[in-house]
Amino acid sequence: MGLAHPTKSVQSLASDPEQPIVSFTDKGEINNVREPLLKGEHHPENYSIRSAILPFLFPAFGGLLYGYDIGATSSATISIESATFSGISWYDLSSVQLGLVTSGSLYGALIGSAVAFKIADWLGRRRELIVSALFYFVGALVTAFAPVYVIMVIGRLLYGVGIGLAMHAAPMYIAETAPSQIRGQLISLKEFFIVFGMLVGYTVGSLLVETVAGWRYMYGVSAPLAVIMGIGMWWLPSSPRWILLCAIQGKGELQGLREKAICCLCQLRGAAIGDSAPRQVDDILSELSQLSEEKEATIGEMLQGKCLKALTIGAGLILFQQITGQPSVLYYAAKIFQDAGFSAAADATRASVFLALLKLIMTGVAVVVVDKLGRRPLLLGGVSGIAISLFLLGSYYTYLGNVPAVAVTALLLYVGCYQLSFGPIGWLMISEIFPLRVRGRGLSISVLVNFGANALVAFAFSPLQVLLGAGTVFFIFGGIAVLSLLFIFFIIPETKGLTLEEIEAKYL
Fold this sequence. Notes:
The chain contains 21 helices and 2 strands. The chain is an all-alpha fold. The chain has 2 domains: 48-236, Growth Hormone, Chain: A, CATH 1.20.1250.20; 297-507, MFS general substrate transporter like domains (Growth Hormone, Chain: A, Up-down Bundle), CATH 1.20.1250. It has a two-stranded antiparallel ribbon with strand order 1-2. It is globular, with a radius of gyration of 24 Å. Residues 55-496 form the Major facilitator superfamily (MFS) profile domain. Keywords: Membrane, Sugar transport, Transmembrane, Transmembrane helix, Transport. GO terms for molecular function: transmembrane transporter activity. The chain crosses the membrane at residues 47-68, 96-117, 129-151, 157-175, 187-205, 217-236, 310-333, 353-371, 378-399, 405-430, 442-461, 467-492.
């Protein structure tokens, strides 16, 4: 429909002398006369904690379902291979077949991330999460009721597509709808939900691992959770920032989309917002206009200017998150406990539950302090601990094999420091740093990097261990952790307390 009545729309925006003044050029482009947020006239965002819960909770279910799949699969693979408890005739799977069951959701997530690059901005954050819930639901049911191996793998792939879409859209929706004062806590809390999902998955798996066809129940549990997520996202409003981006890009009549954004913001903030919703929407609209959000970014533009800078920060941080060995360290956790002589922890499932509890506690600490201490201090401190723990693991497997306490200490230090730094803050930064018009594509690239690097590190660890030895591999990861510290120190900005528009104006 386009911007049908620019003069009328501009007059309505400028009717309040305290509002930013917007004007159009002869070509119909939007100009700002004042730049309130960029010039320091920052208006506080009115909100209540109660009204912020549901716009966070239902998107966070996407993370919970991702974490649950990780935890449940560790026990499901044991159940599937059991002649006694699998409940199927095709339980005798080869290592490749079992690997496809384990990693099928990961490959599906790669597909979902690639698809999101093309359709995310067209769908919008809310509808993408609804579609994600649908894939979660169908994937869980297909896997749980699979009559043959091939159908089971298809179910794992479908579930993985849901993961890819959810891990792409959830941080965007939360970032764009959360008040700036608590945005860091809410996005970090999504990581808490991922870890909580892992803990639930490990726990459910340990309870059902000796039940006939227990793996079907393990995967089937995801279906009702996906229904809750889908119904919740159907009920929630669209992201006001996404609506205003559509307005700036001419995908509807400006005044009508402005009124829709105001209505959605009122739904998100509740009664606490009072009569400030129009002002907040006009602030955002003015900033988007000034920041030249009127065109959709091309793939070429993603590799230029501030888009490239945002991609370097976001995708770079996610890459280091994975190539510092996170999948491999957790993969090696059970063996480390066994080497240390902890008989109660020698069982892989119990060790996994213990580590998930530690991850949950440390993620909770990060959630509490991230908007107080800031992103950079947690990253620098946490990644320093990661580097030390990796060098300790390397030393244990090279020089200190008779001191298993070193390995256990290093493992716990790694898990704790990761959940204080890379775990929650990696997802937080990629949801904050991209300009609005490239946020969908930027996050899809970052999520693709995340799952791709995860798969690569998980796949490469065993061959590298055989070729070089575990000690050398951990030393290599430690060296990469040191490089990531330099990357954080020189490249990663502090975004604590800034609105998304201020972040773009200040750092990109």
